[in-house]
Amino acid sequence: MAILGIETSCDETGVALYDARRGLLAHRLYSQVALHAEYGGVVPELASRDHVRKLWPLVDECLAEAGMSRPDISGVAYTAGPGLVGALLVGAAAGRAMAWALGVPAVGVHHMEGHLLAPLLEADPPEPPFVALLVSGGHTQLMQVDAIGCYRLLGQTLDDAAGEAFDKTAKMMGLPYPGGPELARIAERGVAGRFRFSRPMTDRPGLDFSFSGLKTQVLLAWQDSDQSGQTRCDIARAFQEAVVETLAIKSERALRDSGARTLVVAGGVGANLDLRARLAALSERTGVRVCFPRPAFCTDNGAMIAFAGALRISAGQHEPEAIGVHPRWDMATLPAL
After folding, report:
1. 23 is in an annotated binding site
2. For residue 82, is the peptide bond before it cis, meaning its omega torsion is within 30 degrees of 0?
3. Which residue, of 93, 113, 141, 267, has the fewest CB within 10 Å?
4. What would the pLDDT profile of 250-279 be if each residue is shown by its tens digit?
5. Is 27 annotated as belonging to a binding site?
6. Is there a domain that residue 11 lies in?
């Protein structure tokens, strides 16, 4: 059963084909970074228009790579939320139209469930129960996963998500868009210990996060500095260390509180090498298993949507013919498989 996955929640157009027996057959990703760089951030209207322009050519490329044609598609999965409403509607309309034309089921996938399940595309995938750290530009959450589709929120950010904090901090220091990856890159040249920032909310109980105050600390340090290239690198290193250590402390606390022995990390910030190293050290120290998707599947992609959709379609779930999206969508409301 070949499932077509469509991801259009923000500024990346992702398409993939997944088969339950043969695994991932093909995937394509188009990034709009160059389009939005001029504006220093995502422009929703331009994002929607670019999804319209790129989606069908990417579908055809995936089919060609897999040696398939459209009638070979057994089901369609598309991101139904959360995300930018216009961008979501492009993928939903295209997915529903193709499903209707082919007479196959379609299912709307929760974007963050796609991220959460992305590590299951790797060899030796983790099995529930586990704790998931979902960390991206729009979300920072700790979830207890008792089974696929059975999620309980343990903690979340009260303001900025970690990825958003990376991007905004980079912009404050004049780094080019997209700032988060650039900040992580220059942090490698930073001098350890020259600056130190707080680890927000780690000195109190609970599993919630807050990164807005950390941003303010960085801004004040930057304004009071000589603003040289090396100082920028040093501040970037100290900021990244603060975010990574905060994520690691809260993740370890969630594992201890839940009794889980597996931590799944997903979302764009999951590609951060410092975070991966810190959690690998946690694994070595405690014996807890830590699972990441491959870096290409940390950011938004069609493969995670195709896989999540395949699981739900196989369980008999599908959407009515009406096109609907959910710009805000609580994962706890998802039906169990």
Report:
1. no
2. yes
3. 93
4. 999 999 999 999 999 999 999 999 999 999
5. no
6. yes
Query: 319 and 273 share a domain?
Result: no
pLDDT tens string 12-65: 999 999 999 999 999 999 999 999 999 999 999 999 999 999 999 999 999 999
Q: How many domains does the chain have?
A: 2
The answer to whether 272 is annotated as binding is yes
**What CATH code is carried by the domain that includes residue 245?**
3.30.420.40
Q: Is 301 annotated as a binding residue?
A: no
Within a domain: residue 123?
no
Is 136 a known ligand-binding residue?
yes
134 is in an annotated binding site: yes
Distances (CA, A) of 202 to 4, 244, 290: 42, 12, 21
Distances (CA, A) of 78 to 38, 95, 132, 150, 192: 29, 6, 22, 20, 44
| 182 and 62 belong to one structural domain | no
In eight-state DSSP terms, residue 54 is H
Q: Is 180 annotated as a binding residue?
A: yes
- Encode pLDDT of 105-146 as tens digits: 999 999 999 999 999 999 999 999 999 999 998 899 999 999
Rg (CA), the chain: 20
In this structure, the answer to whether residues 314 and 270 fall within a common structural domain is no
Residue 265 among known ligand-binding residues: no
The annotation status of 139 as a binding-site residue, yes or no, is no
Range of the domain at 224: 128-292
Q: 3-state DSSP call for residue 22? A: coil
Q: How far is CA 39 from CA 34, 36, 54, 161, in A?
A: 10, 5, 20, 21
